[in-house]
Specification:
By secondary structure, the protein is an alpha/beta fold. It has 37 helices and 24 strands.
């Protein structure tokens, strides 16, 4: 039986000028020859049969079963009868490539660089490697766009740990609704970023729209290609496209329009060999740099050499298409055995057992080497240029001070204009307010409600907030709508005009006129905004009395849910910075859905915090003058430190240039002391220990200026060995912990409702309550501890004290023993500050 491919091959030999065109749903095979001019169709077929040597009945069989249009025509007839083909935009597709068309190969590599990830079969680690490569490139300063063109089974949002909630972040938003695509940021590292253009929004409300889009795209993939416009991709250095497996209709149009190397993903088995023709056709679209073969191995114990020895012959078969492409215009053909570097192994990696997408620094050395080889062979190994000014790369500090800022991976996303993150939660001391301070340096971010020490019109702990808080206490939702309306009616919320409008709305409401605060009216104002506006909300913890905290925080989440779900607010983004316990307590029943893909937790783990510590050491004059050589060593690694990249093996030796190996007082190693006494672990799991930069900064400040501490008379700063004095280190920790507790107690004054007579009397009761923990035992049973505290807290009943202990546990001061759930212990961070004593048993 004659196949279509064989039929076309035979036809081209007989008619060298044969033209093969596909215009859905027809495949045209056009043979021009003057001999056809005066013949009828039957005679033309007989002449065609004679010239090609194919029987007439077999010709008819091929035409009938395939829908092929065999056009036998003269040149003059071609120019008149088939002129419509010349006016139809040619859309590259598998059919024409399989038929031997070379019309779409592109010798010129475009900017930005495109890299296409394709696998004939699924399960070849295609999307995983794409994400790892994106991280690696961003770490080196590349601006990377990832495109989830795997329409039938998109997975990049899940791998990146995000959710595409906005239509503008998706292919269908641009293709179906003609919205300007705006990729969302999923990773940021210093000057490098990774953005994602998802296939669809996460909401199931779009299921039917998406199903119709996928069906139509199989017939006409042009709208998908149009989404990757110069306006979108021109913002990036490289675009990584995750394609659908098999003979999907979208693959060739995208690869042809955006030519670039292909990462052909496969395994060393018989099934993968079926995809070789498709890999070759895609590689041919970029013959200068065709790409690489990526071979996924499930055996983590197998080395690259093992695979080459076991499958060397098959690997060379896979490399043959690249050899043919690279042999073009060469005096001698390229031997596939000389191209072994174009075959790149990818090994099953234990790092992926802990996380679907681990940090790229944490994957195996073999896989890191494979990423390096992919970059080398696809032209992405060079250093990158500095991003344009429109890409904000403001730094993050976990606390105040003048040292280098530490950008943690997640937080860096907040400085990207299209980040989906709108909920930033963290415990006290993790740097929420400092982060707001840094974000407000960008004029595109505006304050809605911020801390009292910010330079902004509407702040916590001010007479204005007290006034409007009392006005809206019976209907707390109106407070948030009043702030938003006032801000939207101003060109910016940074001026006194914003204050005046807030006060005016409160005055109107007090008179009974609540019409201006109706969400529908404010939605109309939001919909009229010409540009996108981003507002920041912070300092909730100190803005409201304990008795009204729950209602105001609950109403805030209702308000934010409306803003983020109503399309009229498409140009309004509100970012909330809130302590984690308040989010957990008052987020509401739909909190998980409301926060999905929009939430990050500010958590400092060991690596990031000790990079932070080194940066602060190098910023303090006393350290640089007393320890010039190690401080210079820190400065030489500052690029890595700023991004938190120094590993344990790197930062520990640096710390021991300042701290003694062992502290005499507690008889502990300094490294253990710094890791343990400055953190609060979740239960007994040291891997989940969280640190607080504010505590470390105060600790280092006390060491540098011991005169600010009490009880340091006679303590030298430097010991006889030239390192920090043992007693000074432990004393600085004690004083820093107490200073930190004082800051925490200020927020407890707004959480613990002991005396509602006045704010001052309640604050005094909280301070006395915290002092009463001195000398108490830990671990403890909470009911027993509550009874012990009653005598020292006159006027506070047992129920309120017991409730206060629950509140303190919710903010991390206490934690449940995992081995014995009925008992708690004080968090190690607060043990010294509260003066509690560990008692075994």
């Amino acid at each position: 039986m004659t196949t279509i491919s064989k039929f076309i091959e035979t036809t081209k030999k007989a008619f060298p000028g044969c033209e093969v065109r596909f215009n859905h749903p027809c495949l045209y095979v056009i043979c021009e020859d003057a001999i056809f001019a005066e013949k009828n169709q039957e005679d033309r077929i007989f002449e065609f049969s004679r010239r090609t040597g194919q029987p007439v009945n077999e010709i008819q069989n091929v035409v009938n079963r395939s829908g092929l249009q065999l056009i036998l025509i003269s040149k003059e007839q071609r120019e008149t009868d088939l002129s419509f083909l010349d006016h139809i935009e040619r859309r590259p597709n598998w059919v024409e490539l399989l038929a031997g068309s070379t019309a779409y190969s592109n010798q010129e590599q475009k900017r930005p660089a495109f890299l296409h990830f394709y696998g004939y079969k699924g399960g070849q680690a295609r999307s995983t490697v794409l994400c790892m490569l994106a991280q690696r490139l961003a770490n080196d300063g590349y601006r990377v766009l990832t495109v989830d063109a795997d329409l039938e089974a998109p997975s990049l949002p899940q791998l990146f740990g995000t959710v595409a909630n906005d239509l503008t972040n998706t292919i269908i938003g641009a293709a179906m609704w003609q919205l300007n695509p705006r990729a969302l940021n999923v990773y940021a590292r210093d000057k490098g970023i990774v953005d994602l253009l998802a296939a669809r929004p996460a909401s199931h409300d779009y299921d039917l729209d998406y199903a119709t889009f996928v069906l139509n795209s199989q017939l006409d993939p042009a709208p998908i290609v149009a989404v990757l416009s110069p306006e979108l991709v021109g913002q990036y250095d490289v675009v990584l496209v995750d394609h659908r497996s098999g003979v999907a209709s979208s693959v060739v149009p995208i690869a042809a329009a955006c030519s670039g190397p292909v990462v052909a993903c496969m395994r060393l088995d018989e099934q993968s060999s079926q995809g070789l023709p498709y890999y070759e056709m895609l590689a041919a679209l970029s013959p200068v740099t065709p790409g690489v073969f990526l071979s996924f191995s499930l055996d983590p114990e197998t080395s690259e050499r093992d695979l080459q020895q076991q499958h060397g012959e098959r690997i060379q078969d896979y490399l043959a298409p690249f050899a043919r492409l690279l042999s073009k215009n060469q005096a001698e053909p390229v031997d596939p055995s000389d191209l072994m570097s174009f075959w790149v192994p990818w090994f099953h990696d234990r790092a992926f057992l802990q996380s679907a997408l681990p940090k790229v620094e944490g994957i195996s050395k073999d896989n890191l080497a494979s990423l390096a080889r992919i970059r080398e062979l696809t032209g992405l190994a060079s250093a990158k240029i500095t991003p344009p000014p429109s890409r904000s790369t403001l730094p993050l500090s976990g606390a105040g001070g003048d040292g280098a800022f530490i950008k943690t991976e997640k937080i860096a996303q907040l400085f990207q204009p299209n980040t989906p993150i709108t909920y930033i939660f963290g415990r006290k001391g993790t740097g929420k307010t400092r982060l707001v301070n840094e974000l407000l340096k960008d004029p595109n971010n505006e304050p809605l409600l911020v801390a009292s020490d910010e330079t902004a019109p509407v702040k916590a702990n001010t007479a204005l907030l007290d006034q409007i808080r009392d006005t809206y206490e019976s209907a707390p939702d109106r407070l948030w709508w009043s702030l938003l309306r006032a801000a939207l009616e101003c060109q910016t919320s940074r001026t006194n005009e914003y204050v005046e409008r807030v006060a005016k709305l409160a005055e109107e409401c007090a008179k009974g006129n609540t019409e201006p605060l109706q969400p529908l009216n404010i939605a109309a104002i939001a919909n009229a905004q010409k540009t996108r506006r981003v507002f920041l909300v912070d300092a909730i913890e100190t803005a409201f009395r304990p008795s009204s905290m729950s209602q105001y925080v609950s109403s805030l989440f209702r308000f934010l849910a409306t803003v983020q779900s109503d399309p009229n607010f498409k140009n309004v983004t509100i970012r909330l910075f809130l302590r984690s316990d308040l989010a957990d307590s008052y987020g509401g029943q739909n909190a998980e859905q409301q926060f999905a893909g929009r939430r990050i937790e500010l958590v400092w783990h060991a690596q990031s915090i000790f990079n932070f510590v080194l940066s602060r050491i190098a910023s303090l004059n006393w350290f640089t003058q007393t320890f010039p050589d190690p401080c210079q060593q820190i400065l030489s690694r500052m690029d890595d430190i700023r991004t938190g990249l120094l590993t344990e093996e790197e930062y520990q030796p640096l710390l021991l240039r300042f701290f003694p190996e062992k502290l005499k007082g507690p008889n502990l190693s300094s490294l253990f002391f710094l890791r343990t006494y400055f953190s609060d672990a979740l239960g007994d799991d040291e891997r989940n220990a969280a640190f607080y930069p504010r505590l470390f900064e105060q600790f280092l400040n006390f060491i540098a200026t011991p005169s600010e501490m009490t009880g340091t008379s006679g303590i030298d700063q430097i010991d006889s060995d030239g390192l920090l004095n043992h007693a000074l280190v432990t004393r600085a920790h004690e004083q820093a912990a107490k200073r930190y507790l004082k800051e925490v107690s200020q927020e407890l004054e707004f959480l613990l409702d002991f005396n509602t007579a006045t704010t001052d009397t309640n604050a005094a009761a909280v301070r006395n309550f915290l002092a009463s923990f001195n000398g108490k035992r830990t671990p403890f049973r909470p009911d027993d501890l509550a009874n012990d505290l009653v005598p020292q807290n006159t006027g506070i009943d047992l129920a309120k004290i017991r409730k206060a202990l629950d509140t303190m546990r919710s903010i991390g001061m206490f934690e449940v023993l995992q081995r014995e759930q009925s008992r708690w212990r004080v968090g190690r961070l607060f043990k010294t500050a509260l003066g509690m004593k560990f008692v075994r048993g």
